[in-house]
Amino acid sequence: MSTAGQGQNPLFPRILGHEAGGVVESVGEGVTDVQPGDHVLPIFTGECKECPHCLSEASNMCDLLRINTERGGMLHDGQTRFSKDGKPIYHFLGTSTFSEYTVVHVGQMAKINPEAPLDKVCVLSCGMSTGFGATVNVAKPKKGGSVAVFGLGAVGLAAVEGARVCEASRIIGIDINPNRFEEAKKFGCTEFVNPKDHKKPVQEVGFLENSIPYTLLNFERVIAEMTGGGVDCSIECTGSTQAMISAFECVHDGWGVAVLVGVPSRDDSFKTHPIHFLNERTLRGTFFGNYKPRSDIPGVVEKYMKKELELDKFITHSIPFFDINKAFEYMLRGEGLRCMIRMDA
User: Fold this and answer.
1) What is the number of domains present in the chain?
2) Same domain, 141 and 216
């Protein structure tokens, strides 16, 4: 049994899938923002454009359409639009994209340039936007700065892509799988660290200006020594609480910013000494790269169309829908980044 869904309340049967691109086939009563023929990206979160979060420039966490893993029906009536033999099949994240047809709330659809290739820009509907936005919208490294990215899966490499676009001079990739290092060079990583090589605690007491003792770990010291005191920004993309601690404690005092992207297990917590905050390090979280789906994602698609953002290199496999289980096998074995599932074959 897989532990990938640990901490979740299962609801079955349901149609999974949440990264996709498609064409509007028809619209319901009162829908005016999109029309049949529009090219769209369904998004696992939404933007109602009316709640306090949507009206705030600082937030993208819509009160109405925020991610809900347990909701299995449409928002306004709670009923599912899928069934088989008269029995309901439930929705997933409001998108259910592992299907030739699906039904999505208009607030969870980003209308995009019809010239954009759907088999490329579909990756912007979740992972790529999450990682890329964590860097460019939240960490905001300066040109010539240093960035550490924890976890070199697809989301982490999207964060690396963001650091490259921001013209960071040093992009340090951190992963316990060294097989990922060579591939990560193509995305902009300039150097690498494997935490397994530095995992033993060093029970060495350091003394800060107020004489509070603290324990240093080899790993944080490695980053500090590599960068002259710590990186300017770090992006954590693993969901590991130890990686979160390391990402925060490895940024430079005075100005360092650590951004948490990975989703931990429900009961996880982590501990760090308050002195790290008093020494003017900043810890931030982000959701979907701080992008508002309907307002911002069309502009990210345009970055791709203008060749300011590379997406093709994230798509490492392409298979027809009837071979979808192969995509799960690739994912579980850690092979490739994104597998494109084609509905036309």
Assistant:
1) 2
2) yes
153 closest CA partner among 229, 212, 240: 240
pTM, 2 dp: 0.91
Residue 257: phi and psi, rounded to 5, are -125, 125
Of the given ranges (89-98, 140-149, 268-277, 288-297), which has the lowest mean pLDDT?
Answer: 268-277
Q: Which letter does DSSP use for residue 231 in this model?
A: B
> Is 280 strand, coil or helix?
coil
Residue type, 124: L
Distance between CA atoms of residues 148 and 175, nearest Å:
11
Do 214 and 89 have their domain in common?
no
Q: Is residue 111 part of a domain?
A: yes
The CATH number for 269's domain is: 3.40.50.720
Q: Please state whether the peptide bond connecting residue 13 to the residue before it is cis, i.e. omega within 30 degrees of 0.
A: yes
- Taking only the tens place, the pLDDT of each residue in 16-66 is 999 999 999 999 999 999 999 999 999 999 999 999 999 999 999 999 999
The CA distances from residue 326 to 5, 124, 127, 281, 311, in Å, are 19, 22, 20, 43, 22
